[in-house]
Amino acid sequence: SHIRHAWDPTKSVAQNLAEMGLAENPNKAVPIPKKLLVSGMEVENDGQEQGKKIVRKPYVVNEMEYEASLPEKKSNTLSRDLIDYVRYMIQNHGENYKEMARDEKNYYQDTPKQIKRKINVYKNFYPEEYKDFIASLKQEKMDVQ
Fold first, then answer.
1. What burial class does residue 85 get, using C-beta atoms within 10 Å of its C-beta: 0-12 exposed, 13-18 middle, 19+ buried?
2. 138 with 91: CB under 8 angstroms?
3. How does pLDDT run across 45-101, given as a tens digit for each residue?
4. Residue 44 backbone dihedrals phi, psi, to 5 degrees
5. pTM reported for the whole predicted model
6. Considering Cα of 16, then 19, then 22, then 27, what sign does the dihedral take?
7. In principle, which of 17, 87, 99, 137 could form an S-S bond with 22, CB 3.0–4.6 Å?
């Protein structure tokens, strides 16, 4: 979005990127140092002297660097289908994973270990929701008795 706002449609891509301090060609942006022979001695030339370009819009690079330095949000969630599957299995079979594996709703033919792993993933992603769900199951059992 920063590039889009600073873009000048009357200029070429190379000119726009050069004004923002960005490189059009990454191979030219970071050149490989070349060795020159000067009076019998090897001297490294990094290519910095040639063609220093003026950056007219440095705020674009600064904003992009700031945005990149922000911590990343963890937006890991489970699918609604997996949540419903795990809740159904716990509600009908409790902790009996072998029974869960034989259930007709086990469409993907998960083994008992795979089902246990899915339940543990659900517990780790939604610990509060899991505790409330187990508490509601215990409450239903007490109401039935």
1. buried
2. no
3. 554 455 566 778 888 888 888 988 888 877 778 899 999 999 999 999 999 999 999
4. -85, 135
5. 0.51
6. positive
7. 17
